[in-house]
Fold this protein.
Amino acid sequence: MLMSMQAEGLPLPTPNATGDELFRLGLLYSTGQGGAPLDYVSAHMLFNLAAMRGSLEAKVYRKELSEEMASDDVAEAQRQAREWLAQG
């Protein structure tokens, strides 16, 4: 979640973040490394945004992650991605 990203002390991605930057942040959340909590919703959101910004790797990771997530969680990740885009 966007809120958990802030609460855990990791910076929110800036509106001008590149696909590669968003992908790397998504990796942290998908593995629970680098100070990020293990959070598939945040990881999916970041992979989704990274894919929109041209990261081919993010498309692969997003697909794999979505297969392990409940459909409600995927929908929440998509909602958060839209919210992030609207704030940019």
Q: What stands out?
A: Residues 22 and 50 are 5 Å apart (CA to CA). Helices lie at 2-7, 19-31, 40-52, 56-68, 71-87. Confidence is low (pLDDT under 50) at residues 1-7. The first helix runs from residue 2 to 7.
